[in-house]
Specification:
globular, mainly beta, 15-stranded parallel β-sheet
Length: 218
């Protein structure tokens, strides 16, 4: 009820060293097109995946390439990095959920490689739906593009921080909807195109909101 919304706008150049699409930020040697998996990696690729991705003590999730977003996201633990192959397009017919988050010292990072990962809601059978819901705090999204959503990214009632970096949301009713976030929300290099709602976002009872780099609306 007494939460203060602080909006700081700091414009920065596009050629920053931590730009996720800077060639220097490519995740290690990728002879087969994949990052090198380790304990904190979950890889999602809808064209080159393992048929039997099972979570067992003998077969940890990081040894498995998942074929769909919800399947890969279901294995997330604090400190994990999830890599989505941006060379492919991910067509969804229902909402994608990030069910688990991290902590202040061990956030969850979901990012693309091989270019931005495109997630498109298929509304051929009716109305579009919500594309991506973040159910827990301390999650950072990097290099994701969302198309044809009622709401691109939604999160509510969280105790902790959320971060969106190099995110594009297009052809949607609403771009971002964050409510009751008891922590800091960081937006960096966000592009919102052909969004029906004006303004294209909705923030309510967010403790702190920082925008860094470019924030574009078209």
């Amino acid at each position: 009820s007494g939460a203060m919304l602080v909006l700081g706008i700091v414009l920065a150049g596009c050629a920053e060293r931590d730009n996720p699409f800077d060639h220097a930020q490519t995740p290690g040697p990728q002879p087969s097109g994949f990052p090198v998996p380790h304990e904190s990696n979950i890889v999602i690729d809808n064209r080159n995946f393992d048929e039997n991705c099972l979570r067992t003590e003998d077969f940890p999730a990081y040894k498995c390439v998942h074929g769909n977003l919800n399947g890969g996201f279901s294995y997330i633990k604090a400190g994990d990095t999830v890599w989505i192959n941006g060379a492919n397009r991910y067509i969804i017919t229902s909402m994608i959920r990030v069910p688990n988050g991290g902590s202040q010292l061990m956030p969850v990072v979901i990012r693309s490689f091989n270019g931005p990962a495109v997630i498109q809601f298929d509304s051929a059978g009716g109305f579009p739906g919500e594309c991506l819901r973040i159910d827990r705090a301390y999650v950072k999204l990097i290099g994701i593009k969302l198309l044809n959503c009622t709401t691109g990214i939604h999160s509510t009632n969280q105790d902790g921080d959320l971060s969106l970096d190099s995110i594009t949301i297009e052809n949607s009713i609403q771009a971002i909807n964050f409510q009751q976030i008891r922590g800091k929300v960081t937006l960096r290099h966000i592009a919102m195109k052909n969004i029906l709602d004006v303004p294209p976002w909705f923030f309510s009872k967010v403790d702190s909101l920082d925008t860094l780099g470019s924030l574009e609306t078209h």
